[in-house]
Structures are given as structure tokens and as C-alpha cells.
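Subject: mismatched residue count in predicted assembly?

I count 815 residues in my input, but I want to confirm that the predicted structure covers every chain. Input:
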Amino acid sequence: MGAAMNRGKVRGHAVALAVIALVSAGCGGGDDVNVDDPGGDGESAGSGAGDNQGGDGGTLIAAISAQPDQFDPHKTQAYASFQILENVYDTLVVPDAEGEFQPSLATEWTTSEDGLTWTFTLREGVTFHDGSSFDSADVVYSYNRIIDEQLANAYRFASVASVEATDPQTVTITLTAPTPALLDNIGGFKGMSIIPEGAAEATDLATTAVGTGPFTLEDTGANGVTLARYDDYWGDPALVDSVEFQYVSEPAAALTALRSGDVHWTDNVPPQDIEGLEGDDEVELGVTPSVDYWYLAMNQTKPPFDNRDFRRGVAFGIDRDEVTEAARFGAATTNQAAIPEQSRWYHEYAPFEHDPDQAAELIGANAAATPQPMALMVTDEYPETVQAAQVIQAQLAEVGVEVGIEQEAFATWLDRQAAGDYDAFLLGWLGNLDPFGFYHAQHVCEGTSNFQGYCNPEVDTLLQSAAAETDQDARKTLYDQAAELIVDDVSYLYLYNPDVVQAWAPGMEGYEIRADKAINFETVRLPE
Amino acid sequence: MRAAETVKLLFRGPTAIVAAAVLVVLIVTAFLGEQLAPYDATATDVSNRLQSPSADHWFGTDELGRDVLSRVILGAEVSLRVGAVAVGISLVAGVLIGLLAGYYGRWVDDVLMRISDVLFAFPAMLMAIAVLAILGPGSTNAMIAIGIVYTPIFARITRASVLSVREEVYVKAARSAGAGDLRIIGRHVLPNVTAPIIVQTSISLAFAILSEAALSFVGLGTQPPDPSWGRMLAEGRGFVEQAWWMAVFPGLAIFVTVLAFNVLGDALRDVLDPRQRQAMAGTGVTA
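Triage response: the counts match. Full output below for your records.
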């Protein structure tokens, strides 16, 4: 055949130029991330921390992939910011690695008989990094700041009537309806941190931090952030003198720096590198299921995506196993609902087997055109969405949907999502613990994160009653029912729960990789 | 100058012949891409991903199990199409602006050339990215963006040549014979300013292809899953340790194509520049 002959020709031409190719590949390599920097900066940071204590805990250097947008815990929504703030601020309660809430700034709490009054007893002898002492006024101030300024996390106080300081060591939260998820709402992550009374007016919290955590925020620069151990910390002081976060956007640069000992820890490990790192003596690899989930959403204000049967057709047309393998290289678990199987709120429900025939039938009967065009919006901010989209495109092409992939910068992506200017998109939700976080804002009719325009009154009723149900078993049953409807209606087309992948220096002790991706260096000891 | 003579001079050296041969192969590849490619370039097969080069897949497979050879072959069409259309846009617009500015001079020249200067002042990639930020990503918009970026170069080159040509005796003669501006520009000026424009076209094609690759590399050009060399390079970057072939082969393709256009452009410059040509042709040929 003619094709075979021509193939030979193309190949011969390539081989002749292979020598040149090596040169061009070397030059075209990649971005100029300066991995030499950590060593130099690390030294100066170490000596700076030494002034306070003369400790020899050393400086832990962590390479993170993204740069924090700001350091105001109540305002930022960036994971990169929380990676740092996790070590600087505290919340009243804090989830342990299993997601159970433990005392932090509050030592104990009680709930009234009717579930409408929660009383928190605060820890004594806690001081902020500026030396002022912590009491109930700081809690009231912090929570009211989020509520009054209607900050992004204000929805977590939706059922809160008032936050009052009963006495300096006691805070009383009064609710309009029982809220079993209250501990998650006020302590699920560092977005609910306690800041000193008046701090937002007295200092610029976007660039400085006044927390109660094990480390103080020292220098913030374009290349990274330095934290120093806070010696008056209420718990056991941290073992390292200081922590330096470096921004390293290239995974290859982060891994090289880790292997050479320039950094001690990184989360910038793409899933395709896992296999190669498993037998690597120079790197300790941590892989554990996360509480994140990734999904496809269709715009339910636009035909034919507003048609439930059409969406169900798409759900039957997608082979989740293949999508998951393509996007995550096995470092994920497919799921047809949001909550991962490690969670006590997991509900096994998987009505969509990959079934191209049924998919083609449902799509054919309800599409507006043949094939039905569907623009799928993705962002290179999350490369796994670009990979997943290409596999989904190939799968849906076989059942009558012509997917057009639109790769946008994340800022544009978010604008278009907010404006409803899309047919479908791929994205994930990170770090939820309580089913309220997994389902509520995304699927109630007027939900603040319900960008896909889903509205099922039955789901609303179930989610509202579940949010106020204090009996855990009854509450789980309500969420299970809601989840089944959400899955059946394809409000979100759930794909998988990814694993958390992190790597650190062999011999680094006391670090715990967590499902919620909270990164805490409080108990870490550097290798000798 | 006669075309046949130019071609003869052009191919006196082996470099121009090799460059032209490479480009012919590329153009044929671009036109016959679908027939040449051994596999469907967008067909994914995740179970067969990241295969190293073998008899089945000469250039290996990528992270979604697609055949890299097929994608490089089809990428030729994308690169050449974007390059040709983009340079076509800047050629037409730039030559028009240059002719008007050079022929009419005075305020027309001032206005058009100052606008060109403004466009020139921006780094080319930055401006292409800015244009794409307004138009939205995609290969059609990439053509427009690259076309806009390279327009001022053509305008400047054309204007410079027109400035000398319009003072020529034959232009003055045509004017005194009562020829209109349009006729003078079309019949007497344009044919005498083509040489530098041809050279610039060849060199601009190289830059346009490089620009397309760069824009696709940052995600603004060709959209997935369509194969584009720049895009493949970007995808391959994350797999350098596991699959060198994902980045090396498209990188090689960009390199060869850009080199071929540059070499041909240089050869054309040598031939079309009257002084060079005299030197090359020696005493035997009159220019």
C-alpha cells in the first residue's frame, strides 16, 4: 500500500536528523525554575531562626507547586495559601487524619438538648504571635468578620443566629436550626481561623499573619515564604526551627531538588511519576486516598443539556475506568457519587454501567442535532482535566456527541462558569469532610456553587432536612437518598476520587499525609 | 530579473536544494496527512499508553495511547496551514500599508508608520498572547494573532523599497504620461519591490510556525485533541522521564521545518539582492 511506502520515507528522514533532535530537545527543555536557590536561602533562613532559640532543629524546605494569592485566611480560596496557613493559624476544633474533630483552641464543647445552642470552652494560656492573649472576644470578632463582610465562607454560618462571648473562656453559638455539621463548618479547614480582635483593621492580613499556630509567618517574597517556630505555642513547640516554602511550578525541578537534598518535601508529584518513584531509595513516596472528587457538569439551563435523559445518555456513554486511568494513572478510585469509600458517609451507588448502546439511544432521542455538539471547558491549571476531556471526547464520539474541547486560562474559566457561558465543564472539589460540604451548595436550587443550574425540589427537601438532622444514622439516610437523586439526575457526572501524592526526604520523621491534604509540619523532625 | 535565472542561481548550492526538498516533503505530508498517518491521530487507547518506539509505533505512543508518528504527520498540516494563513494576512496587510505609506508619503506615511512602530514596540509573543486573550484561544484566532504581529515587518520592508522606486525615472515618466496612482502602484511600483518581500515571506513562515508552536505550547493555539507540534511538546514536557519520544519527535519536526524555511530565505536573499547576485553570478551573467 502507498501508505506503508510513505511511512518509510518519513522515518528515514527523521533518523538522519536524530543528532540535531537531541540538541533541540535539550534547549527546548522547560521553564527556568531556579533549583539552586533553596540552598542559599535556606542557610540565611536557618541562621535567622537560630537567633531566637539557638535551636538546631534545622530548616525544613518544602516545594509547593503554586503561589499563594494572599495570607488572609478568611479571604483566600487558594490551596497554596492554606498549605502555609495550616502551620500559622488555629481553629476552635481541628479534624484529625480520620476526619474526626479534636480540640484545638476549644478544649471542650456541649450541645443543648434542642441542638440550637453550642457552648465552647476555650483553651487557657494561648497567645497570638503578636504577644496578645487569646480569649472569647477574638472568636466572636473572627466569626462576625466572616458573617458581616459576607466573605466566601459566610455560607458556613447560614444557620448561625449569633456568636457570643459568655465569659473570656466561653463562646456560645446560637443556631436557628440544629446543625450537626457545625464542627466541620467552624473547623474543617483554616479558612475558619481565629484572628485577634481588631486584627483586620490594625494590620494588613493579606501580607502578614497573626495566628496562634506553631509557626509565625516571617518573610514573604516572590520565590517563597519563611516560617519560624513560635516558642510560646500552646502545644508542644515544633521540632524544626523554621520552615521555608519554595514555589516550584515544574514537577521535574521539584523532584530533582528533592533527590539532591535541596528540598525536604514536595506535593508537586504528577501521578505519572508514581510508578518510577516507588522503587526510588532517594525519595519517600506517600500516596493515600483523598476526600476530593472530580466531575463533569453540563449546563442545565441550555438545551439539550437541560434534558435529564440526554444527561443520562452521556453518563452511560462515559467509561469512568478509562477516564480515571488516563487522567490519574491509577492514582484514583472511580466513583459515581461524590463521597469516597473511606468516609463514614460513603454510600455505594453506581447505576451507570458503561453502555454505549443505551447511551446512543438516550442521546439520539433527546439531542438537538446529530451529532450533538458539546463544548467542554477545561483548564491547564489542572492538566488532568485536559487529559480526561480527550478521552471523554473519544468515548462520546461513539454515542452521538461531538465534544469540542475548550482550554481556558483558569481566570477565564471561572468567569465563564460564573456567567453560565458553557455547555459543559470538568473540575474538582477539594477537601470536604461532611456531606453538607459534598452536596449542599452544589445541588440545592439556589446553591452558591450550583453553576450547572440543577433544581430538584425533592433533593432540596432532603438536603435541607439532612442539614438539620441530629441523629447521625437518620442523617446519613437522608444524604444517601439525596445523593441517589443527584446521581440519577446527573446534576454532576461524578468521575473519581483522586489520591493525594506527596514525596519527602527519606528519614524525615513525624509527617502524616492526610486525606484532606492539610499539610502540617508541627511534629516533623528532619533527617540527620 | 528573470524567474528561471533566479531559480537556477538559487539551486547552485546544496543547502538550498536540501531545504527546498525538505519543504516539498513537508507540504506533501501536510496535504496527504490523513493517508500517510498509520493511525487515527486522535484515537485514544489508554491501555496502550507511553509505549516506546517500536515496529507498530515508530515514534511510540503518548499519554493517552495515541500514535506519536500519526500526530507528528497531521501536525505538519496544522503548522503549515497556520503559518501560511498567518503570513498571508501579514503579507497582504503589510504590503498594502507599505505601498500606501511609501508612495503617498507625508501624513499618510506618518500615520501608518507610527501605528506600525507601536505594533513593533511590543514583543511579538506578548502581543500574540494579548490578541488571543481578546479573541479567545483556537487555531483560527492564532492565525489572526500571528498575522497581526508580523504585519509591521512587511509594511516597513515594502515602504523602504517603495521610497527608492517612486523616485525612479520610469515612475516619473508614467506619471507625466498621465497614469493614475493605482496604475502606477500596481504596474510600476509593486513589481519592482517584490524581491525583499519574497525573502521576508520565507523567513516569516519560519517565525509564524514557531509562533504557532509557542502559542499552542502555552495552550492558546490549537486546541486538544488536534495534533499540533507545539501542543505535543507541551504535553510531552510532563513525561520527559517516562517517554522522551513524546517531546523529541515534535521538537524535531519544528526544528527541521523552521530551519528549512530559514535556509531557503537566506538563499533567496543571496540571489535576489542585486549586489550579492552579481558576486554569485560572476562575470558570465548580467543582472
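Chain B touches chain A through 41 residues (CB under 8 Å). Marking this ticket as 'not a bug'.
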